[in-house]
Write a structure and sequence with these properties.
Chain lengths: 623, 93
């Protein structure tokens, strides 16, 4: 009873207690609802596809991308052919550089002051990019005098005096009067001097793909684009091996304390690109390129290519001209990155004659002795008697590169035998060196050959064409006693030893002797002779097909494929010159002569081999 | 003095001390980790610099011996000629 009275007296004493209690209750309820709504909005409506947990994780986790280093390309002696190098550049911000530092800056940059001032002024006149003036680049990573000068300059302080207009402190009181033009705004010019360091000079590092062998190897090695991705040559062909895979590491600031969050976690391990070692010898490559280049210039040719092989099939050099320096990124002509030795399929011409004769000898259709005379007076198909020779020995047929004589011999061979031999020599088959670059060439099946096809095939025309590397490869039979190894371009790759026996030792030896006589004063390859060395080889001239028909302007291709020394060959070289226009006689280099296989391509062989052999000789003497 | 305190108070004091020590140790441990991390970044940078320098020097060596500049200088500036085989033999003798 007493309690009841107490309670009622409490309610009576507190005005509108229930109402007030309800107000507080509802306020809290509304607040709660607001919180719930906010949670729903943040988690579901505003979050989009990313959950709040993921957002939180991304804020507490720092992710670092570790770029993979691109692998180097090396030659057989581990000389660098392509590598990523870090260089430094000096980047100026002309809007910040103090004028007092200009002279010292010019001295540090080792350039005239006027020139520096001009460049800065020119940059300041521009509307865009005014804050970036790369004044020096390609500076060495270490021991660069300019970089050292700039580093020292950045430590120096000079007294810099600046003048600036300052408003009167109490002008704000006159603002309405100034606004109404009753009073002029007063400004004071204040000069302030203080010792300052130079501003707006930065030494920056950057990476480039550098090719120290410049244009001598450009068509083979290729180039990379701005994203350092191979776009041609070896760079493109072996992109997967060279590029490597980028890695990802994270630092998680939200971890419990069992592990340090300064210890980065490897999410994806970086895999640096692997080096590729080529069978190329940079020195031999340089000589080959120089010889090819000078020949194109001398003979006013369209282009040229050459390839040098070791008897085991290793490629020592592949040179092409024209060619560009891949370090000059502003000049890119796809034509100058064309690896003609692999990509151009051509009719080989007379360089195929030794194989026709070798096959006939191997099949005992001829003896190739000096007492065996071939009648070359009767026309065979469209090949006419030339009124020059009546009977020729096989040696003479090769020396003079006689078409009718070769066709006469080919009449003794079956189509099938000829096809099988050419097929075994690798014509129409891939070399497997650079599948994206090389052309297969072609060799039609003998079942589709007419008699004319067989005849023209005997001297390198008709139902076949091939690239220069395939032709060079076929000549390996002369260095391997009738066997043919595969070509090899990657030094550290495993290749199956798949040397094929094609011709007998005896027959091959005989043809080698005959090829030796081709590079003599009586043969067409006389201009490939090298003092003190026996050289064997064969010249070739093939009319160029332009727009599907043989050129009427006498445009031709000059070939020479040879090897040295004759008995135990160390080097096999094939040369192709496209459309040489200026050729000269042997006895007087000022008298012009018609361009044939004999007076352009053999000289490239001679010049290259002379350098290689001289070098070997020098090595033998001094080491 | 300590004997007058109850056992619970003693445990509380001990726990407080342990907590303070642990806090200091944690701070120290984090600091050491940070120093280690900074050092590892420095070492990594130095390693990268060494690799870059090595690559640079190898590339420059390769460029210098590639013959372009050497040959140009030898022929154009020094007016040198390529020795014949006969001459090289004479020199060796």
């Amino acid at each position: 009873m007493i309690n009841k009275n107490k309670k009622s007296s409490f309610f009576l004493r507190t005005q509108n207690y229930i109402v007030r209690q309800n107000v507080v209750k509802y306020v809290f309820l509304i607040l709660l609802l607001l919180f719930v709504t906010r949670i729903v909005v943040i988690n579901k409506i505003d979050a989009g596809d990313v959950s709040i947990q993921e957002k939180a994780n991304s804020q507490t986790t720092k992710q670092f991308k570790q770029n993979a280093r691109r692998g180097d390309i090396l030659d057989r002696n581990d000389e660098v052919i392509a590598s990523n190098i870090t260089l430094k550049k000096i980047n100026l911000d002309p809007t910040l550089i103090q004028l007092e530092f200009i002279e010292k800056l010019a001295n540090s940059l080792q350039m005239p002051k006027d020139e520096l001032e001009k460049q800065i002024k020119d940059k300041l006149k521009k509307k865009q990019g005014r804050r970036n003036l790369i004044i020096k680049d390609n500076l060495q990573l270490v021991n660069s005098v300019i970089v050292e000068n700039i580093e020292n300059l950045k430590k120096q302080k000079l007294l810099i005096c600046k003048t600036k207009e300052v408003k009167n402190k109490f002008d704000f009181l006159k603002k309405p009067l100034i606004f109404l033009d009753f009073v002029q705004e007063e400004k004071k010019i204040v000069k302030s001097c203080k010792r300052e360091k130079i501003q707006g000079v930065a030494i920056q590092k950057y990476n480039i793909r550098y090719y120290p062998k410049k244009e001598s190897l450009a068509p083979l090695v290729g180039n990379v684009n701005v994203n350092k991705k191979g776009i041609s040559g070896i760079e493109r062909e072996f992109e997967d091996v060279l590029a490597g895979k980028n890695g990802i590491t994270t630092i998680d600031f939200n971890k419990d304390l069992k592990e340090s969050y300064f210890n980065p976690k490897v999410v994806k391990k970086v895999e640096h690109g692997k080096n590729i070692k080529l069978t190329i010898d940079s020195q031999i490559q340089f000589w080959t390129y120089q010889a090819v280049k000078s020949s194109v210039i001398k003979h006013d040719a369209d282009s040229a290519a050459a390839i040098v092989l070791k008897p085991n099939g290793e490629i020592l050099a592949i040179a092409n001209y024209p060619s560009d320096d891949p370090n000059k990124k502003t000049e890119y002509k796809a034509e100058n990155y064309r690896n003609r030795a692999l990509s151009d399929k051509v009719e080989p011409g007379s360089v195929m004659k030794p194989f026709t004769i070798l096959l006939a000898l191997d099949k005992n259709k001829i003896t190739a002795n000096d007492d065996e005379l071939i009648d070359v007076t009767k026309d065979i198909g469209h090949i006419k008697f030339d009124n020059k020779y009546e009977h020729m020995t096989v040696k003479q047929i090769l020396q003079k590169s006689h078409n009718l004589g070769t066709v006469n011999i080919s009449e003794r061979i079956d189509k099938e035998d000829m096809y099988n031999t050419w097929d075994k020599l690798g014509f129409g088959h891939p070399l497997g060196l650079m599948p994206n670059v090389e052309s297969l060439g072609s060799l039609k099946h003998f079942s589709s050959w007419s008699n004319e096809d067989k005849r023209t095939l005997s001297f390198g025309h008709g139902p076949m064409n091939a690239n220069l590397a395939q032709l060079a490869k076929s000549y390996l039979v002369f260095a391997n006693q009738g066997s043919l190894p595969n070509l090899k371009l990657i030094y550290n790759s495993y290749t199956e030893n798949s040397t094929k026996k094609i011709f007998s030792k005896k027959a091959t030896k005989k043809i080698v002797e005959l090829l030796d006589s081709v590079v003599s004063n009586d043969g067409s390859g006389y201009r490939a002779q090298i003092d003190n060395y026996n050289v064997a080889g064969k010249t070739g001239t093939a009319e160029m097909i332009i727009d599907g028909v043989y050129s009427k302007d006498g445009a031709n291709r000059a070939f020479f494929i040879g090897f040295v020394p004759t008995q135990k060959p160390e080097y096999i070289m094939a040369v192709l010159i496209n459309y040489p226009k200026k050729c000269y006689t042997f006895w007087d280099p000022t008298i012009r002569n018609k361009c044939l296989g004999s007076n352009s391509a053999p000289m490239v062989f001679k010049e290259t081999m002379k350098n290689i052999l001289n070098n070997n000789q020098a090595k033998a003497v001094y080491y | 003095m300590l004997s007058e305190l109850s056992i619970i108070t003693k445990i509380n004091i001990l726990l407080t001390l342990v907590l303070i020590i642990l806090a200091f140790l944690t701070i120290n441990w984090h600091q050491e980790n940070r120093v280690l991390y900074t050092k590892s970044i420095k070492v990594q940078t130095q390693k990268d610099l060494l690799i870059a320098t090595n690559k640079y020097l190898k590339t420059m060596y390769s460029e210098q011996i590639n013959g372009f500049e050497t040959k140009e200088k030898a022929i154009d500036v020094l007016k040198m000629k390529i020795p014949s085989l006969k001459q090289s033999k004479q020199i060796s003798l």
